[in-house]
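Handover notes (outgoing to incoming on-call)

Open items:
1. Acyltransferase 3 domain-containing protein: sequence verified, structure written out, both below. Nothing else pending on this one.
2. Nothing else urgent.
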Amino acid sequence: MVCEQIVIFLFSLNFQISVLLIMKRADLQGVRGFSILIVLLFHLFPKKFSNGFAGVDIFFVLSGYLMTMIYSKKSADYDFVKLFYIRRFLRLLPMYAMTLLSVLAIGSWMLIKIEYYYLRNDVGLALAMITNLINLKPNTDYWKQVTEYAFVLHTWSLSVEVQYYLVVPLLFFIEQRFSRFGSTIVGSLTLASFLFYCFASDRLTFGFPLARFWQFQVGSLSSKLTSEPPKKSDEENLVDKPEYLPIKDAHKPVIRLALSICLLTLALPNLHFLIKKQVQVSATLISGLIFAIPNDSSCIFSNPLFSYLGDISYVLYLIHWPMILFCRYYYEALLSENEYLARAAVFSILGSIFVHHLLEKNLLGSFKKSTVFTMGCYGLCLCFLAWPHIFSEEPFQDGFVPGHDSYYWSNETYYDPSWPHEKLIANALAKNDIMYWHAWSLPPECEPTKNQFSCKVKPGNGTLKIMAIGNSYCVRAFPAIYEILKDHYKTMEMVALGGWEPLDKLFYPNFPETCPECYEVQKYIRMQTADILFIVNRFFYNFRDRITGPFDKDEVTQRALKELQTYSKYVKKIFISGVTISFLKKKHPLLELNRRLHLNQSLDSVGEYPYRDFLHQQANTLTRIRYILTKCPKCVFYDMQAPLCDGKKQTCYKCDQKSFLAYYNDSDHLSNVAIEKLIPSLRNVIEKMVNEI
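Acyltransferase 3 domain-containing protein structure tokens:
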């Protein structure tokens, strides 16, 4: 009997539309339409419409309003809970699953292997509806991800909403069963949620359900305030039901207009002075007040355009973000930014209209169709995720694991110049993938130590004691050092620490307390008395700071000189290198290169950059190093950037111009192809040092 009632219930009209018609609140659907509009503007132009993200906050308020309006007066028993969950998940899941399946299908064709690998991981989280929890990880920032190719990033809000639905029946039960005490419990949870939101970090509050709970409850309170006022003769109603919002009818249009105008300001461009949390709190409270005031036809948000946007808002929210990214991905090299964003907006709106009328409305009217459709989409998604691993020939290893026991670029033919263009492209795509995953490698028979970045090479037949120190740049360069000195060394060792720059003492202001490992390395060097000490790091921190006075007053330079003076007591030659251009705030060179190759697009602006960009970025570093060389007679500097440029040092390259193999395997580090490119000039510098010893 209960199942029959559920099926009949699910054959009713569209959930949101039917509710709004029953309650005669056309403005609510209009507010929903306005919310999706500002979210769309924000995702299209995040810098210009920087407050559009608040549309999602309004969604949460509206969701809380509707949940309370429909279900608060129903008995919170087993049948209610079953009906609630069936209806909610069938309302959300069909279009949600369809979107994830579409993203996977399009991504399998359009994306390069590396990005498709990450897409599959993201969709796996989205299928489980836990995308919002990704932002809880350290060093994860939603606002930065908006500019990346995170195709299901926007599903975080649906994850929050679903997680809220898990507790809604319990809240209704507590309030119905325990009356005043239940309301006190729910109110306390709401207050705790708001305080957590106010005082916790943005990373924690952005997608954490507890930090969003208060927004749903603002909507719930608005719904209770729009209920019919209780009869004063009924004392029980006066206790159990909230008071009707005490506003005179004559004042309501004016108040509603003022609130609506305040909400509309979220769509204004270039309001950058507002703080994100202030915007979110304001949007939440203003929308809650608008919902609490009974509607009339004069409301701004009763406009048919806003109402229709509200009708298609769920589908539009789901597809607009992937559509923007796919358009950017494909058209970025072909069209201007405004042109491909305009296409994304048109495709999103037209696609939403099509899907809403063809699929969404029909599925909402059929329990059986919705179930079959959802299960089919989920099943196909799982097939995509369970497909044979796309890196079956080269299993995935992250950048902190050597690619092979021996460095795989040695004695390997990367490409044959006689290959046809198509084979060169296919080879470049495959080899660049390998270099992306296998970010570094160690020389043969290099025994690792406790530090994952460090190792000792098997004793050689030469006479030189070689030591290399630094960070991940040193790790990348070490195989080349080994290749050049393999017939000259007696002992060879590398000691590297992630992010460590041996000459930048200001990075560790309380040295050695803040970097005991660095201090141990310094003591170790004194014990080893190496012939050649290689210092290779990226000079990313204080060396790049502006030089404001004479060098004898420059603390960065003086501390570096003091460190070199210490090293000079124990070694015969000091080799300094690692200064290269950084693309950290720009596009990933390897990924951008592979995208263009995969889509058969022009490599203009991708394969090269002017040498002056390097000089400008590293001007202070190079100036300090030049001065240091005048004060350190044992020091030699090797320009690691020059071999990647033309002979006149006018144009530098991100990839080999004949083979299309990338010179960078991420935004900073040189690939093995680039390291191999350094060997001829590096050999000249090192052999000269050896001859001078």
